[in-house]
## 1
Amino acid sequence: VQLKTKHSRIRRVDVESAEEMYAASQIYFPDADAGILCAAVADYRPETVADKKIKREKEEELTLHLQATQDIAAKPTRDIAAHLGEMKKQHPGKVLVGFALETNNEQQNAEGKLERKNFDFIVLNSLNDAGAGFRHDTNKISIIDRKGRTDYPLKPKTEVAQDIIDRLVATL
């Protein structure tokens, strides 16, 4: 993105790939008070990457299989959240915030991710609410921690961000 970081106490590190993000997180997380893991990192990457644009040839279809085959072998990207959750065990006092976008079994899936990744809390986004999520300037979230769930009404995304920061500050 081309957005600028507006607060002098926030360190922003720009990356372009999941591997770069993993490396940066390993370098900077030990010195951070908190990590807000809001990027949607792809779970798989192709083993081979084209060195130039793949041009359309006539009306042929191109299929990319994200599973191991003889033609294209997919490799899982490193699980950045899980690695930081493990690092957090050696760094008491750090807060780790995760996000979950769910369409079914929302509560169960978010709670499972909270535990597996060792988050302090997780922000649950639902695609089942009108006016929330993608293509809207509003969102409706729930924040889940080990004590329970807090639901928030539909509101502008800037106010949603403030709700998340307020919870983070209360957790620190």
## 2
Amino acid sequence: MKILIDIVHPADVHVIKNFIWEMEKRGHEILVTARQKDVAINLLDAYKIKYTTISEAKKGLLNLGMELITRDLKLLNIARKFNPDILIGQTYPSVTHVAWILNKKSVMFTDTEHAKLVNYASFPFASCICTPKCYTKDWGRKQVRYDSYQELTYLHPNYFTPNPAVLEEIGLNENDTFIVMRFVAWAAGHDVGHSGLTIEDKRNAVKAFEKYGRVLITSESPLPLEFEKYRITVPPEKIHNLLYYATLLYGESATMASECAVLGTHAIFCDYAGRGYTDEEEEKYDIVYNFKDEMTMGKESLKKALELLNSSDLRQKGKKKGEILLRDKIDVTAFMVNFIENQLSI
């Protein structure tokens, strides 16, 4: 089988990497196209995945629209030459557009309900839409649900074993208390009009967390000078090792909050929209805590974070919750491989 995979976001690389390697082992031919966004290209290089870059992410709806047109045309040209049996994407509509034009099958893997612009531009043209069971939207007969989270494509124990060596690189050990903070750029089309935590919220959190342990910050956008000394310096492909050993995650990234959940690390997630999966990780597993009111999220999320940090056995509780979660959820890469190898009957 010939498969074209389109990568548009760093998280896409993690989600699809084990699928690529397993399908190649099975003799399938894979072609990867990529979008230059944040560290997506760095991750592809780190994992030695061959790719062709076809666009670069820029801010603003106008730029997003122009990129979509350019990306569709470039991907169409590549697909015509490659002649894939199936096209796979996650967060951008070009895959479904090109597949529809060429009368090919396309599968979208998604877990983000509020990405309305992208979803409505993609899903009408898709052959199939694969989502977690906890995904709150219904896309009809095209939708296939699996009982797990996308983060378990790469953080399931079948693929991931934590390596404490990453701690040595930044002068920490497994017993140290440290808090990872994650800030996003709020530049996606569905984020227009929203800004998440304020600079004052972030400043207050840093000051409060420093009383408990070391603070490490990772950010999509440039950090204010006052936060530079907290910047995480480990390579992006090692970040999950850091999250496994972290005492707490605090920030605006749904993906990173869910990564922490499956790793057994408590997480605070601040975002106006929320996600079906982070809601479930709070309601069912009590390991992620969601704050959606932009007027109060800074104050209320910090209050919850400090409550957690005052627990002397927070790490141990988190690991036990993570074990329960893993017993409930499936290996998503295995699901993807099985589904794609048999999906032509759709």
